[in-house]
Amino acid sequence: MEKNEIRKKIKAMRSMLLESERIAAAEEVFAQLEKSAAFIMANHILMYHSLPDELSTHGFLAKWSDKKHFYLPRVNGVNLDILPYDETRLELGAFHIEEPTGNNTINPDDIELIVVPAVAYDRKGNRLGRGKGFYDRLLKTTKATKIGIGYEFQMLDEIPVEQHDVKMDIVITQNTCIVINKYDK
Fold first, then answer.
1. Would you state the torsion angle of the CA atoms of residues 103, 106, 108, 113, taken in this order, to the nearest 10 degrees?
2. How far apart are CA 54 and CA 163, in angstroms?
3. Could you give the residue ranges of the DSSP H alpha helices within the chain?
């Protein structure tokens, strides 16, 4: 299946989810993430501020923001800047995503773990994003552990891969946790 076909199919499936299913899936995925060695050992974590059709990160950010140092991406041209997460300093940015404000960007090398959104993943750790390449450009610049999260129906047997695509180290859905790359953090 072509990338755009996958995007349309997943978008349709996300639109059919009940709110109770969204909440239950997020709770299960983040419970698994909390138990992972990568999360337990990381202090500096790049998250994302979820869109309505994505697995919600809002409750997880609120739960852990006083225990871990969270960061969010902000679109800057064709790249992503990384800024500290502060719920009181978010504004609607590019693509109608809430982004952090300010000038206190940090170096991607300071991040130990990146929780990555996607349209779909496959069992080899490949990721299909929304098609702009923001995350792939960022992920190529860091040695941080990369964990993809999503709904179970976002886990496919195989997705098309291009040379610039960056694999995940771990993929977590409400029913699956696949460790693709061994890491020692």
1. -110
2. 26
3. 3-15, 19-35, 37-41, 58-64, 134-139
The Cα–Cα gap between 137 and 81 comes to: 11
Question: Sheet of 69-76: strands edge to edge?
Answer: 79-84, 69-76, 44-46, 113-116, 145-149, 170-172, 177-179
Helices (runs of H) and strands (runs of E) counted in the chain: 5, 12
| Whole-angstrom distance, CA of residue 7 vs CA of residue 169 | 22
Could you report the per-residue pLDDT of 20-33, keeping only the tens digit for each? 999 999 999 999 99
Which pTM value belongs to this model? Answer: 0.93
CB 169 within 8 A of CB 147: yes
Amino acid of residue 163? Q
Q: Tokens 């995925």 — which residue?
A: 29
